[in-house]
Amino acid sequence: MSMIYSQIRAFHAVASHGSFTRAAAALSVSQPTLSSQVKALEAKYEVDLFIPAGRGIEITPLGRRLHAITQKQFRLEAEAELLLSETRSLKAGFLRIGADSPYHALPLVARYQERYPGIEISMNFGNSRDTLADLMARRIDVAIIPPPPEDDPRLISQLLIADRLVAFVPKAHKWAKQKSVNLKRLAGTRVILREEGSTTRAVFEAAVAAAGMTLKDVFEIGSREAVRAAVVEGLGVGVVSEAELIRGDNIHVLPISGADLRVPEHLVCLAECAPQRTIKAVFDLLED
């Protein structure tokens, strides 16, 4: 504790209690120690903060002005201590989450909010590439995205959910009575995909390339909702994550055969931030 802080604290206690004796008892120090700290403060700035008054003391006009400031100072100090204490116990705090899909993220967020209602949560959604960039730039605390490179020591990740890609067509489509569709047939028709940088597109294009094929025709749309709307309008065959697909009577879902199209979603954070209580608590939920 710095000397000036000790002296200010001593002054504040005397001004608040109106007595050196009561102030010393409140701070659990001896009265001579307290008196010497106040006198040192007065001597340092060549001022009088208290003057004798009968058998007691009286605060000076300057002392009253200083006391008004120290009241604010120690109130804010108490608030800061309370904030840190409550954050440690997860009664208060902040958590910023980024995800490439609300469908994977929101169930976890709901569990977290139920267990820690005092934690304020903000969420951003974007494609997996942008979400990872936000994490690396510390614009978010945790990310829900496909697994990052295993050899990156800056990151810690844990499996959240294992999803898969599916195709879907409008009910009037010629494939609407099929139970599934082969990857080769799918690559030979117009497919509707999210923008580059999305997990769906990366996984699907990688599977097509691994099978030694190329896509015949890609209709790119920037959101999963728009992909569904385009399929309903007959603009092509949609490919999306199964968990993200909004089902309905106007579409038919087709599992894709002939390729491994699993899409694991991981909870990811920076390794150096993993010990933070608000972040660690998210990962702990996956162990429950």
Characterization of the model:
It is a single chain. Helices cover 44% and strands 25% of the residues. By secondary structure, the protein is an alpha/beta fold. Strands 3, 4, 5, 6, 7, 8, 9, 10, 11 and 12 form a ten-stranded mixed sheet that branches. The protein has a two-stranded antiparallel sheet with strand order 1-2. The longest helix has 28 residues, at 61-88. It starts with a helix and ends with a helix.
Considering the chains and any ligands shown, give keywords for the structure.
288 residues; 3 domains; alpha/beta; ten-stranded mixed sheet; D-Maltodextrin-Binding Protein, domain 2; 12 strands; rod-shaped; Arc Repressor Mutant, subunit A; transcription cis-regulatory region binding; two-stranded antiparallel ribbon
Structural class: alpha/beta
Q: Total number of β-strand segments?
A: 12
Helix content: 40-55%
CATH architecture of the largest domain: 3-Layer(aba) Sandwich
What is the string of helix and strand elements?
A: HHHEEHEHEHEEEHEHEHEEEH
Give the C-level CATH assignment of the largest domain. Alpha Beta
Q: What is the fold-level CATH name, i.e. the topology of the largest domain?
A: D-Maltodextrin-Binding Protein, domain 2
Shape: rod-shaped
Summed up, the domain count is 3
The unreliable regions are none
Family: Belongs to the LysR transcriptional regulatory family.
Pfam families: HTH_1 (PF00126), LysR_substrate (PF03466)
GO molecular function: DNA-binding transcription factor activity; transcription cis-regulatory region binding
Domain HTH lysR-type: 3-60
